[in-house]
Request: fold
Amino acid sequence: MSLLRVWTIAVLIGLTFAAYANEARPLAEDEAVEQRLNHIAEELRCLVCQNESLAGSRAELAQDLRREVRQLIKQGKTDQEIKDFLVSRYGDFVLYRPPVKPSTWLLWIGPFVLLVAGIAGLLIYLRRRSRRLEQEEKPLSAEERARARALLEDGES
Amino acid sequence: MNRFLWPLVLFIVLVGFLAVGLRLNPREVPSPLIGKPAPAFTLPQLHAPEQSFSPEQMKGRVWLLNVWASWCVSCRQEHPLLVELARQNIAPIVGLDYKDGRDDALAWLRQHGDPYDLSAMDADGRVGIDYGVYGVPETYLIDKQGIIRLKHIGPLTPEVMQQKVLPLLRELEKA
Reply:
């Protein structure tokens, strides 16, 4: 009896897994399109919830835009054409990677300018500091040494 | 003295940047459509579904395109302004009823007043995408040649009307 029970349980467990395996089929009709969609949408900003990408957002506009991008992919548009499509409507702001142009130079180069300025400042400070220390730690001249000894002995007596 | 002053100066500069940054509205994304022709579309009218509307029909007039929806809460906020504008008969206002149901939209207009010369129904939001709509309400000012001259995102306020929309509208009327 116990063998039968074990067998039944095993079969049941096996069936559950089989059922799950059936349900886990990919939902998308066309996997290649979905992959490209995700690849593009990761680089695009959802304008409704601005800190989410178009791929991750559940906002209704994001769903509409994904549908739009999906259609463009099916029409055989290149990634660049699809991005241009969105930029022409929503502006550079939809791109998480802003293009390099005069209005974004500060954005792109600014951090490096700050870095260079910081390093320059640090070097100047260090040079000055070591010069100051050098001066302070200069060994005593013979004359100064004699005077110091004289003062010390003076104090002892 | 110097060494204590520097952190203070840096701190003040930082506070200055933050003070400016916090006052900016991140929702106000400059639209690339300004100065460009209003995207063409043909959509059924809300009140007369058998008739269609396209921006072509407004050539030669300065007009406002107002994106609204019955589900849009902040549309209620700006709506009295539009009703008032329509009463003064300053410029034609065309509504773009964005992702809305016809019955809901008609009921909403009955309740809050209908400032629109007509409304076009953008049921699936495709036209909204062409106009770069991402937060209803949005308002476009379009000139006689069909060029978008101004876009306002979010509800119109009396200040925006007085300082931005109406002056530009008068200027464009003269042109």
